[in-house]
Structure formats: structure tokens, C-alpha cells
Amino acid sequence: MPIFAEKKMKNRSVMFQDLGSMAYKEAWDYQEELFKGIVDIKMHNRQAPGDASPTPNYLLFCEHPHVYTLGKNGSENNLLVNMLELQNKEATFFKTNRGGDITYHGPGQIVGYPILDLDNFSPDIHQYVFNLEEAIIRTIAEYGLEGGRLGGASGVWLDPKQSAKARKICAIGIRSSRWVTMHGFAFNVNTDLSYFELINPCGFTDKKATSMERELGRTMDMAEVRARLKHHLAQVIGMSYI
Questions:
Q1: Are 155 and 162 a contacting pair, CB within 8 Å?
Q2: In the chain, is it the N or the C terminus that has fewer CB atoms within a 10 Å radius of its CB?
Q3: Among all residues, which ones are annotated catalytic?
Q4: Which of 170, 154, 165 is CA-nearest to residue 229?
Q5: Domains of the chain by range and CATH?
């Protein structure tokens, strides 16, 4: 396909959906459905360039009931309790196909699932992860919190340059195929941090999780934080919402 035609096919519009509270497996299945739809369009475009269609993009926000998820390269040893103890905490556990190790999702957390065709934006996974981190960093900065990056680890951290004090406020774990992304980030806003005590978060035995609520000493307005985060994601990734 001519270069000009490829540029015309770029679609930087993103369909945003706030799914509210949704069980993890239900959200995962929905992601897979959207992900497959984009990949199928890309395969069709490659096979029949004369009949090519632009690929859609999606951004899903939700909260999950208590659940622990393990990345495909993670270790089950980082789950520090057995399944009976998880049941007593009304929590579930899933092995997933994302990157990263183990993390927790629960009420008071903004879970974001960008399902994007990076060919519409920038086909660079490292830049994409950097952009997700940057959106979180800009969001918490509006509340007076200085976030940063920890060498060798994805996500957003507070005091990352002070090893003994470094604490994670947002975990990131993604999957990509043919430059299409799924899974995403878990941003601790009003999260019950006691659930992180049952795991080695993201595989770390010497690092803790934190939340906006803990750092600022007050319960946050979730709708307000979501709106600000949504704005910053659009800014750093270069997308518009439909």
C-alpha cells in the first residue's frame, strides 16, 4: 500500500467506556473480543489493501471486586496465601496473558484497559508504556504528588530514587500482538492496601504499594480523578474520544 494511503488510514479516535464495577474475567473476555476484532481488521487490510478499513481503538475504565492476577512470566510464589485464605478475603485469582508479575485489583482502584492499534499512534511498546506512566504522573501531580519511574520496573512510583522509601501507586502490565494492545494499568486511588500484604507486589519483596488516599490523608473523588486521568491519557498518547 502506498505510504500516503497508510497515513490516511490512521485513526486516532478512541471509544471510551466506563464499565463501572465488573468481575475480572468478564472484563478480560470483553477485552479479548475487542482485541480480536482489531487484529482481524488488520489482517484483512494486509490481505486486501484495496478494501482496507481503519482500525478502531478503545479505552475501558473499571473497578474490579477483590482479585489477584499473575502475569505470564510471574511466579505463583509471590502469592503468599492459599486459595482458602483468598476465599476468606472474598478474593479470586487468575493467571493472565499480560506481562509483569502479580498484582491486586479491587474497589477504589482505577483499572484502565487501552485496546489500541499502535499503528494509529506510535508503534513503539516502550514509548507506549512510558506514555501510560506519564499520564499517571501528570494526574497525581495535579494533587501535589510527585511520581516517577524506578529503573528496571514498570509503573509509577513515589520516591523512586530512595530505595527504602520507594512505593508503587500504579502497576502496569500489557499484552501486545501486531501492535494491538490490551490489559493496561491499575491506579491506586482509594484502594484498601491491606490486600497487597498477601502478595509480593509485582514480585518485589522490599517494596510497598501506596494510594492517593494514603499519601494525601483523605478519600479522593473517584469521578474527578478518572476525568483528569482520561484527559492526560489523551494528551500524552495523542488521541481524541468519541
A1: no
A2: C
A3: 202
A4: 170
A5: 3-241 (3.30.930.10)
